[in-house]
């Protein structure tokens, strides 16, 4: 039995078709990343799965239970942990009181271990918490009853890098113990570290479900190199270089150097090839600096799951499709 199954799940808000005939399955014991640009429809799917909003059409099953049947949904929720995107606890309660409340509702098999791991403050009122501390408390309440399935909406937002690493190791351990993890994310490095498979949603429609390796092969790296002397751009046209751009920047001594020759060339491009081949090619040049970074997930959506895939499938109505824009555009 799959942990999650969606069959033609559709949510029509009237002005926005937020989920359009979405079907896929999440297997037991896998970590499945649900990815898409802002407004693509991820939270709508999650909130529909949890019964907070009703689907316009289609259905879904959580741990084999129909979400449209109240009794079955309640049964599934006994074994489910959920971390919402805009987590809000009672502002006047302390962390300890929140934990006691959650323990009384759903049980508490693991809070001791989780408190040691995530260390939220317990004796302060929630209104004094930073957003990171709210998230830490949320992770404890999500896992404290030892659920079989967890649904996490952007789980690492607000966590510092150390806590993010702890969270990653913890979630991997849970997966190894048979827990199924379904989470939404914007962050490619998080997806790389965690996911077995990913589903990508755009404009309310599922674009693909694929192993995370396939996404990573496509996504590439953003390369920025600052050379001492100009490089013939033909020399940089090697397999896997896309969107090559050149700029002029100040040399390492800065614009105050006074010399007219203080400007030096900088090249940026996305690279999807073998990084060893690139480094071998670059050995011929004298460089001041070189950076190779993870591509922003938004760029990957744009490049591989972009407008052209979907625009021609318009239904002909003048409604707004969910998530047509990609925010924070990048010049690479
Ligand atoms: N209650 C609502 N009424 C009308 N439209 C809504 C409602 N909730 C969401 N939408 C719209 O549905 C679309 C999908 O929103 P949703 O929050 O599911 O996207 P998302 O992928 O989770 O986005 P983000 O990554 O920004 O959180 C958006 O266009 C949003 O404005």
Automatic annotation (TrEMBL):
Thylakoid is among the record's keywords: no
InterPro entries associated with the record: AAA+_ATPase, ABC_transporter-like_ATP-bd, ABC_transporter_ATP-binding, P-loop_NTPase
GO molecular function annotations of the record: ATP binding; ATP hydrolysis activity
Keywords: ATP-binding, Nucleotide-binding, Transport
CDD domains, per database record: ABC_DR_subfamily_A (cd03230)
Zinc recorded as keyword: no
ABC transporter domain residues: 4-228
Gene3D superfamilies per record: P-loop containing nucleotide triphosphate hydrolases
Region described as Disordered: 246-266, 312-332
Record family assignment: Belongs to the ABC transporter superfamily.
Protein name, per record: ABC transporter ATP-binding protein
Lineage, top ranks: Archaea, Methanobacteriati, Methanobacteriota, Stenosarchaea group, Halobacteria
């Amino acid at each position: 039995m799959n942990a999650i199954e969606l069959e033609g799940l559709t949510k029509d808000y009237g002005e926005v078709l937020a989920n359009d005939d979405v079907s896929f399955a999440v297997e037991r014991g896998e970590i499945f990343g649900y990815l898409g640009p802002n407004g693509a429809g991820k939270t709508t799917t999650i909130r529909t799965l949890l019964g907070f909003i009703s689907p316009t059409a289609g259905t879904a099953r959580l741990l084999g239970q129909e979400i449209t049947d109240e009794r079955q949904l309640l049964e599934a929720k006994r074994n489910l942990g959920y971390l919402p995107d805009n987590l809000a606890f009672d502002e006047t309660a302390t962390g300890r009181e929140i934990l006691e409340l959650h323990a009384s509702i759903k049980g508490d098999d693991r809070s001791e271990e989780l408190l040691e791991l995530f260390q939220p403050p317990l004796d302060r009122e929630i209104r004094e918490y930073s957003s990171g501390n709210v998230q830490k408390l949320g992770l404890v309440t999500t896992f404290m009853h030892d659920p079989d399935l967890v649904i996490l909406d952007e789980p690492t937002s607000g966590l510092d890098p150390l806590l993010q690493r702890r969270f990653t190791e913890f979630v991997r351990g849970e997966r190894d113990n048979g827990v199924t993890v379904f989470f939404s994310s914007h962050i490619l490095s998080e997806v790389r570290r965690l996911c077995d498979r990913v589903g990508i949603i755009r404009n309310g429609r599922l674009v693909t479900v694929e192993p995370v390796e396939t996404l990573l092969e496509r996504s590439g790296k953003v390369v920025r190199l600052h050379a001492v002397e100009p490089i013939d751009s033909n020399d940089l046209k090697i397999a896997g270089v896309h969107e090559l751009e050149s700029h002029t920047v100040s040399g390492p001594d800065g614009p105050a150097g006074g010399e007219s020759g203080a400007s030096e060339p900088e090249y940026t491009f996305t690279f999807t090839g073998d990084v060893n081949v690139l480094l071998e090619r670059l050995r011929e040049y004298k460089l001041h600096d070189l950076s190779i970074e993870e591509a922003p997930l938004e760029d990957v959506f744009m490049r591989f799951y972009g407008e052209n895939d979907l625009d021609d499938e318009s239904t002909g109505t003048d409604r707004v499709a969910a998530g047509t824009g990609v925010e924070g555009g990048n010049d690479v």
